[in-house]
Automatic annotation (TrEMBL):
This is LRC18 protein. Residues 220-253 are annotated as: Disordered. Residues 226-244 have a biased composition (Polar residues). Keywords: Leucine-rich repeat, Repeat. PANTHER family: LEUCINE-RICH REPEAT-CONTAINING PROTEIN 18-LIKE, PTHR48051.
Amino acid sequence: PKGKGPQGKRITLKVAKNSVRVAFNGRRRLDLSKMGIATFPKCILELADVEELDLSRNMLKKIPNIIEKFQNLMWLDLHSNQLDELPAAIGTLHNLTYLNLCNNKLKCLPEELTLLRNLRTLNLGLNCLETIPTTLGTLRELIELGLFDNALTIIPKSVKKLPKLEKLNVKRNPLPEFAEEEEPIDTVKRVESLYLVEKKDLCSSCLQTCQGERDELHKLEDMTPGPSNKPSFPSLVTPNSSARDNQEEWRMK
């Protein structure tokens, strides 16, 4: 076969038109998720006026610069593909408020990403990012930012101090603040030294304390149910109440 890697499913304009849905917010969404697409289908340029585009859970390795034709896009989902880079043209989608790039193979981000000044949600989790540009701090409308499961060793202060940021997920990154985990607190009291003395050698107050603790221990032992001495025969099936009343006597015989 010609070419390398999976060829993927070919999407026709008819299939694409039948995949347009009206979302709950009234926007038109072109939903091509889970379609086995390996190459960006150029035929969907005929539908470039949609407000939402879902290409998630496919086999896309590249998003071409023709993505700039989708100027009405407010919502773009590309999660769970095989993208290792983004085109510079991504920065022309100025109306985007939601961008999901989670679970790809991104190693770096284009500077043009910082031109998306209306972004409120940006998910970059589960990628291969070692750094993120400090200019990401210019996305002042960001409310949620996912950076989890990457290879980040530093989060720029400009990103941490975004004015509207409510949710920042940086879990499972080799960040210095997570390198030294606190030692677990031992909640069990442990005796390092044990001294045995005779009762006659204790003063009255110490003797009273020891007797009190011993009484508490006996109470706990009394409250702990011990093993039942009544014989048990779980494999015997009793057919009626009369047999149940006499089963122990029969068994013992």
